[in-house]
Amino acid sequence: MNPALGGVASSVQCLHDELLRSHQNSEIVDCVDKARNISGCKKTLILAHGLWQWPGEVALKRFKNSKAPYLVFPHGMLDPWFKKTYPFKHIKKQMYWWWKQREILKYAQAVCFTTEEERVLARKTFFPYQANEVVTGIGVSEPPPACSKQKEDFLAKYPILKGKRMLLYLGRFHPKKGVDLLIQEWNKKQKNKKDITLVLGGPLSPSSPFIEKLKNLSYGCSNICWTGMLDGKDKWTALRLADALILPSHQENYGMVVAEACSVGKPVLLTNKVNLWREIESTCAGMVAEDNAEGISKMLNAWDEGRIQGTEKSALRCFRDHLHVKNAASRLIDVVQGASLKVP
Fold first, then answer.
1. What is the pLDDT of residue 4?
2. Which helix (H) or strand (E) holds 70?
3. What is the domain extent for residue 19?
4. In the beta sheet, which residues pair with residue 224?
């Protein structure tokens, strides 16, 4: 459940909180021994988040022992991008798929996808593939209220941002995120502009060769600000101060930060490899481009020239209609209630 490890933990926590607000009994179990202890409780339905680990195994074993139904959330772990990018790892996973993982999906009451894009892509990665597919969505809740004191504290911490237009990247620094291309394209045209800043917010591991590579790419660029990981008040303040959020990923199952940006009315620039791109494009909540140098350059130019401004209302509408967690919780409750009827 460490938020520094990516969006799955925050999405699980957010969904859990919304289920409680909807008067459902919900508990997060992140310990295999504790999960095994619920095997005798027939009224408990397991939602196994992620693949390749113990939650699915516990759910399958319980199903075989008592026919108790369970649900699975792949959270993008069936995306074919991993197959293309890490072929040797894929061979190992395909073997595990034959042995156990395909069974976990096959017998699940439902396999829950966060977007239609994720559902379609999931069919192209492992074989044989059999699943009762449902698009439940995921999302975030209402943002915390804005506070002028938080803004003052944030700018005191990062004085380079005072009086600047700000483009924000928020997330992990991983090769699939495309931040290397973002820095390279920024350096071509935006590097010497003094009225704008590219803010790169995310965990900075001192032992990461990739982060070292990114910092070398940004060397000498005075309008790139590395903040380290932003969470809590600092995260929301950065989102509110930014002109827009950019997510140049080569693969992104959902992008919780996209929903968070839209929740405070900020337009989003993202590639068509972020599975939320259809929702952003259909509601005019930002701009979508290819995940290559040309695509990222187009997004940067559009932002720099002010062609993204004016989409704040569209971003808020996208959040309320598509990215609010209450919509996902409502759909999930329907699936859970249908499954619960079949508990022996």
1. 64
2. strand 70-73
3. 3-141+325-340
4. 198
pLDDT, position 147: 87
Residues 94, 108: Cα–Cα separation, whole Å: 19
pTM of structure: 0.89
Half-sphere exposure in the Cβ direction for 108 (13 Å, CA)? 33
Single-letter amino acid code for the residue at 72: V
Low-confidence winner among 56-70, 166-180, 328-342 (lowest mean pLDDT) = 328-342
**At CB < 8 A and 24+ separation, what contacts does 269-275 make?**
269/167, 269/244, 269/245, 269/299, 269/302, 269/303, 269/308, 270/246, 271/178, 271/247, 271/295, 271/296, 273/81, 273/249, 274/247, 274/249, 275/76, 275/114, 275/115, 275/117, 275/118, 275/121
Domain tally for the chain? 2
342 band by pLDDT with thresholds 50, 70 and 90: low
| Same domain for 164 and 213 | yes
Token digits of residue 18: 């919304």
- The β-bridge partners of 165 are 196
Mode of pairing for the β-strands spanning 268-271 and 286-289: parallel
Read out DSSP for 176-241? GG-HHHHHHHHHHHTTT-SSEEEEEES---TT-HHHHHHHHHTTT-TTEEEEE---HHHHHHHHHH
pLDDT grade, residue 339 (50/70/90)? confident
pLDDT per position as a tens digit, 317-335: 999 999 999 999 999 999 9
- Say which DSSP state 285 is in: S
Same domain for 273 and 298, yes or no, is yes
Tell me, yes or no, whether 299 and 173 share the same domain: yes
Q: State yes or no: pLDDT of 182 exceeds 90.
A: yes
3-state helix, strand, coil in the chain (%, to 5): 50, 15, 35
The phi and psi torsions of 61 (rounded to 5 degrees) equal -60, -40
Nearest to residue 262, comparing CAs of 220, 323, 195?
323
Alpha-carbon distance values, 322 to 243, 255, 336 (Å): 22, 13, 20
At 95, which CATH number? 3.40.50
